[in-house]
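Possible regression after last week's pipeline update?

I re-ran a chain I had predicted before the update to compare outputs. Posting the input and the new output here so someone can diff against the archived version. Not blocking, just want to make sure nothing changed silently.
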Amino acid sequence: MKVFLCGKGRAAEDIVVRLVHGGVQVAVWSHPGAELLALAERAGVWRSYQSVNDADWPFRPDLLVSVGYLHLLSERTLRALGDKTINCHYALLPRHRGRSPVPWAIFDGDERTGVTWHWIDRGIDTGRVLLQVPVTIRANDTQASLFVRLHALAAVSFDTALDMATAGEPGHEQHGRSSYHRHGPPCGGVIDPGWPDDKVERFIRAMTYPPLPYARLNGVEVKTMDEYGRLRGRRSSTTGGGHG
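New output (post-update):
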């Protein structure tokens, strides 16, 4: 079997290792500076930081797997692959299509999120669902802590998704209320002082993913509700916030 792995992040790294150990011929497509490229080099795997849409391919794959890949697949690429392309999205589609689904799930107060393996079609995260694995969003989850669990879910569910895709499972249409987010953090990363405290608290957790910027108020980083309360000149109505 021959696979293109397009992406970045811990889940993509774990999946490459699984594929190589399983005797699959793999080519890795990632982004400049990604650890995935260094891992592929150490494993002797063909790799490129160019877009899979533009570069010459080392071989024609049986399947393309996207995990954290920042390039949309072009119409030409989809045609060339015969639509044998799957993606892992960190949300329970159709909720939180597009970019930054993890912080949005926390900020919106969702009780759960998860990973969705789906066929890639001409839309953005609109393809037929192969597999969904839910996870509860804990009251103290930050973007960073939730990402750790989602990376693990993506890696452990990959074998099932791969088996379904290679067997030609058609999947099912997405059902439920949909939402879509463009590039960038929720609300530009800026706290609205008119929000109630519970919304501010969720926003602070949603924006906690060092070394990325934290939530801001009046140009000042806010890492806890206590810091928020001090900036507002009052005690926070929410205790705790132990980091920072």
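Follow-up from reviewer: compared with the archived run. The longest strand covers residues 112-119. Marking as no regression found.
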